Amino acid sequence: MSPPESDDTGKEKEPPTNTCLFAPLQLGLPALPDQPPKPEDLEDDNSQTLKDLHTLLLETSVASGKLVCGNCDHEYAVKEGIANFLLPSHLV
Question: Which of 24, 31, 35, 37 could be 41's S-S partner, Cβ–Cβ 3.0 to 4.6 Å?
Answer without folding.
Answer: 37
